[in-house]
Amino acid sequence: MEEKKENLQESEIQSVSINEAKDKISNDNQTEIIEQLNSKIVELNDKYLRTAAELENTRRRSALDIESVSRNRAMGVAGKILPVMDAVQSALKHNPEDAGIKSMEKALQNAFAQIGITKIESVGEKLNPQFHNAIQMVDKPDDKTATNTIVEELQSGYMFGDTVLRTAMVVVSK
């Protein structure tokens, strides 16, 4: 224990001033230190730029994910509303003069327009399997009608933006 006390008493605290330290550092050491610091700055700058780019990519991915979820949700709701529109159109076929049914159809069409749902035009168009589902083929009603032309629409098809929600069920000429 006494030895430890002696060792503690023998150690002296040395102090060095900044000016003395500067004098001790040679020009070579200063150049080496500057190079080390510059390389550290380059390294940190690179890390900063990579982190900033990664953050920007994350923001973009998040925005796309949010847009995709919103679009899928809207498509799901639209898919559930399509049978209502079918029922209204069927009711209009049976009673075309009913003001209440006409009003419902107009309200649904306005809602579809606001959401971005559009009806696929069919009658008189050439059959396109991407948009139409041919259920039946009939003889040409007249000589002006070309082969594979849609002559009747049994069920309307709809698009949400550039995505087909439901193909139209149609009757096609032979």
Mean of the pLDDT scores? Answer: 85
Straight-line distance between termini: 113 Å
Helical amount among residues, as a percent range? Answer: 55-70%
CATH class of the largest domain: Alpha Beta
Radius of gyration: 39 Å
Question: What is the makeup of the main sheet?
Answer: 3 strands, antiparallel
CATH architecture call of the largest domain: Alpha-Beta Complex
Oligomer: single chain
The CATH superfamily name of the largest domain is: GrpE nucleotide exchange factor, coiled-coil domain
- Contiguous helical run count: 4
Overall shape: it is elongated
H and E order:
HHHHEEEEEE
Approximate strand percentage: 15-25%
Provide the structure class.
alpha+beta
* CATH fold topology of the largest domain: Hemagglutinin Ectodomain, Chain B
Number of domains: 2
